Amino acid sequence: xxxxxxxxxxxxxxxxxxxxxxxxxxxxxxxxxxxxxxxxxxxxxxxxxxxxxxxxxxxxxxxxxxxxxxxxxxxxxx
Length: 78
Fold this sequence. Notes:
The chain has a single domain, classed as CATH 2.40.50.140. The protein is built from no helices and five strands. Strands 1-2-3-5-4 form a five-stranded mixed β-barrel. The mean pLDDT is about 95. It is an all-beta fold and about 80 residues long.
């Protein structure tokens, strides 16, 4: 099974080696056919602490670093 790759915006960089990324997605409601926007926050591992608030990043699924951190920053996005 391929790993999920998501793109979003950094909204918090306070914890050490971690960032919080807000991912927005659009989908069509199956019955009403209306386009709906949904947002979700992900805790992401950032080894070098180089991403700051407002940065656009791509994240990829990985082994769990903790109870909530199951994604890491993908490659060199800056």
